[in-house]
Amino acid sequence: MKIYADENIEQAIVEGLRRRGVKIVSAGELGYIGGSDDFHLRKASEMNAVILTHDNDYLIIAEKFDHNGIIFAHSKNVSIGQCVRGVELIANILTDKDMKNHVEFL
Q1: How many domains does the chain have?
Q2: Which residues pair with 25 in a beta bridge?
């Protein structure tokens, strides 16, 4: 599974996931800062990636568009360490097929 971290995901999370062998790219690294949620959803789809986000707007978008999956980690309820461990677990257990049009909550 490939993960696309939208622009509100901390770099510490991205780096922590990479250290654990998770395939992840971030919007910031790709120069996509300031893009709309629809833009990020489209880019993730083009990359066949699941979106990792703290942005609850994706929960509304998820109902309207086909997507490769969304991992939602509420920034006030999930620490950086909890996010890294949770996403690593999801990436190791669920398949791309499992995540298709699915939202996983941390």
Answers
A1: 1
A2: 4
CATH number (domain holding residue 9) = 3.40.50
Q: What is the mean pLDDT of residues 91-99?
A: 96
Packing angle of the helix pair 11-19, 80-93 (nearest 10 deg): 50
Enclosing domain of residue 71: 2-105
The residue type found at 77 is: N
Q: What ranges in 62-100 are assigned the alpha helix state H?
A: 80-93, 96-99
Task: Check if the beta carbon of residue 95 is closer than 8 Å to that of residue 1.
Answer: yes
**First CA to last CA across the chain, in angstroms?**
17
Strand intervals (E) in 1-106: 2-5, 23-26, 49-53, 70-72, 103-105
Q: What is the pTM of this model?
A: 0.93
Starting from the edge strand earliest in sequence, which strands make up the sheet with 2-5, in order?
23-26, 2-5, 49-53, 70-72, 103-105
Residue 21: φ, ψ to 5°: 85, 10
CB 34 within 8 A of CB 27: no
